[in-house]
C-alpha cells in the first residue's frame, strides 16, 4: 500500500503545483502589452504627451494595458509607422499626417500653406478633416484616437531671405509631398530628411533651409548651425495617434473606455503643450543666437502665391472629397 500512497501523494503534489503555477501566471496573462513607435525625441512635447497618455491608461486600467513608447524613430522610422500599425507589427503609433498625402490627399490637408495658419484655424480644419480620416482608417483596419498640431511653420535658413528668389538653388529639407513641392516652386533643391536626422543634416551641410516649427528647431539644436528663422505661420501640421482596430477590439470594455478617456485628455493637453512649445522653443533659439524675424512683405507675398498653387493642385488631386473638406472649412 505504501507505494500507492506515495504515488497518490506525488500526484496530489504535482496537481497542487500546477494549480499554483496557473494562479501565479493569471495576472501576467491578464496584462496586455502594446508598442507605440514615435518619430520624435523623448523630450519633444508630442512624445512627453504620449508618455503621459500611456501612463494614464496604465493607471486607469489597473495595469491591464501597458504601452511602451519608442521615441526618436527607434522602433520604426516615421514613414513606416502607419504600415506597422496597419499590419499589427505595432498595436498603436504616432504619425505625421502630411507624410501620407501621396497615399490619400486628405492626409495632407493640414500641410497646405496658409489654408489654416493659426491654432484656431487648425482646430477648425481638424473638425472637418477628422470624419473623413476616421472613415479611411476604418477601411484600413485602424482608428484615430487623437491629434495634436505642431506649432506654426516658419522658414529656417543659413542665409538671409528677402524674397522667395533667395531660396533659389538652396538645399531644402523635404519631409512630405507638400514640402518637396514648395522646394520645386521656389527653385530650391529638395532633400528628404526625417526629423531624427535634421541636426546632422544641417551640421554637415546636407541641407541649408527648411520650413518647420520652432519646436523642431530646438529639438535639433539648430541655433548651432542656422542663423535665421522667418515666422511665416504657414501651416500647423498634426501628429495623430492611430491604433490597430483588431488590437483595440480585443480589449475589455473598461480598458477601451480608459483608452478613449486618456486620448481625449491627451488631445486637450497636447494642444496646450503645443502653444507653450511654440513660445518656449523660439525663445530658446533666440537665446542661442538665432534671429527670429518676421518675413518681409515680399517673402510673405511670394509664399502666399506658393500656397495658392499648392491648394489648387491639391484640390485637383483630391477631387470631390477635397472640395467638400475645403468648402466646409471655409464656411
Describe the structure.
By secondary structure, the chain is an alpha/beta fold. 51% of the residues lie in helices and 16% in strands. The chain has helices spanning 2-30, 45-60, 81-86, 119-139, 177-186, 198-203, 214-219, 245-249, 253-287, 297-330, and strands at 32-37, 65-70, 92-96, 142-149, 154-157, 171-174, 189-192, 209-212, 228-230, 238-244, 291-293. A four-stranded mixed sheet has the order 8-5-9-11. A three-stranded antiparallel sheet has the order 3-10-4. A two-stranded parallel sheet has the order 1-2. Helix 4 crosses helix 10. Residues 22-29 have low confidence and may be disordered.
In short:
The chain has 331 residues and is α/β, with parallel strands linked by helices. The protein has helices spanning 2-30, 45-60, 81-86, 119-139, 177-186, 198-203, 214-219, 245-249, 253-287, 297-330; strands spanning 32-37, 65-70, 92-96, 142-149, 154-157, 171-174, 189-192, 209-212, 228-230, 238-244, 291-293. The longest helix has 35 residues, at 253-287.
The outline comes out as globular
Radius of gyration: 24 Å
What would the average pLDDT be, to the nearest integer? 93
Which stretches of 5+ consecutive residues score pLDDT under 50? 22-29
Order of helices and strands: HEHEHEHEEEHEHEHEEHHEH
Oligomeric assembly:
single chain
* Proportion of residues in helical segments: 40-55%
Number of helices: 10
Tell me the structural class: alpha/beta
Order of neighbouring strands in the sheet with most strands: 8-5-9-11
Terminal-residue CA separation: 92 Å
Task: Bin the strand percentage.
Answer: 15-25%
Sheet with the most strands? 4 strands, mixed
- The count of β-strands is 11
Amino acid at each position: 500500500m505504501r507505494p500507492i500512497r506515495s504515488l497518490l501523494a506525488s500526484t496530489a503534489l504535482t496537481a497542487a503545483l500546477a494549480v499554483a503555477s496557473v494562479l501565479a501566471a493569471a495576472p501576467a496573462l491578464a496584462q496586455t502589452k502594446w508598442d507605440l513607435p514615435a518619430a520624435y525625441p523623448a523630450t519633444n512635447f508630442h512624445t512627453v504627451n504620449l508618455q503621459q497618455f500611456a501612463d494614464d491608461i496604465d493607471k486607469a486600467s489597473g495595469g491591464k494595458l501597458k504601452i511602451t513608447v519608442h521615441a526618436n524613430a527607434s522602433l520604426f522610422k516615421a514613414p513606416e509607422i502607419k504600415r506597422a500599425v496597419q499590419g499589427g507589427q505595432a498595436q498603436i503609433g504616432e504619425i505625421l499626417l502630411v507624410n501620407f498625402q501621396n497615399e490619400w490627399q486628405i492626409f495632407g490637408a493640414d500641410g497646405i500653406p496658409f489654408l489654416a495658419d493659426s491654432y484656431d484655424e487648425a482646430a477648425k480644419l481638424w473638425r472637418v478633416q477628422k470624419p473623413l480620416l476616421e472613415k479611411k482608417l476604418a477601411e484600413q483596419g485602424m482608428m484615430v484616437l487623437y491629434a495634436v498640431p505642431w506649432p506654426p511653420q516658419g522658414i529656417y535658413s543659413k542665409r538671409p531671405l528677402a524674397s522667395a528668389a533667395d531660396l533659389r538653388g538652396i538645399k531644402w529639407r523635404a519631409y512630405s509631398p507638400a514640402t518637396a513641392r514648395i522646394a520645386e516652386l521656389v527653385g530650391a533643391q529638395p532633400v528628404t530628411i526625417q526629423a531624427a536626422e535634421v541636426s546632422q543634416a544641417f551640421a554637415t551641410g546636407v541641407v541649408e533651409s527648411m520650413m518647420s516649427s520652432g519646436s523642431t528647431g530646438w529639438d535639433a539644436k539648430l541655433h548651432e548651425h542656422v542663423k535665421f528663422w522667418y515666422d511665416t505661420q504657414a501651416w500647423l501640421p498634426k501628429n495623430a495617434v492611430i491604433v490597430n482596430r483588431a488590437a483595440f477590439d480585443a480589449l475589455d470594455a473598461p480598458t477601451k473606455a480608459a483608452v478613449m478617456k486618456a486620448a481625449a485628455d491627451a488631445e486637450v493637453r497636447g494642444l496646450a503643450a503645443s502653444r507653450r512649445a511654440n513660445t518656449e522653443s523660439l525663445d530658446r533659439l533666440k537665446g542661442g543666437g538665432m534671429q527670429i524675424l518676421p518675413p518681409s512683405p515680399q517673402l510673405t507675398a511670394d509664399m502666399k502665391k506658393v500656397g495658392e498653387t499648392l491648394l489648387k493642385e491639391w484640390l485637383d488631386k483630391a477631387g470631390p472629397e477635397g472640395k467638400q473638406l475645403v468648402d466646409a472649412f471655409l464656411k
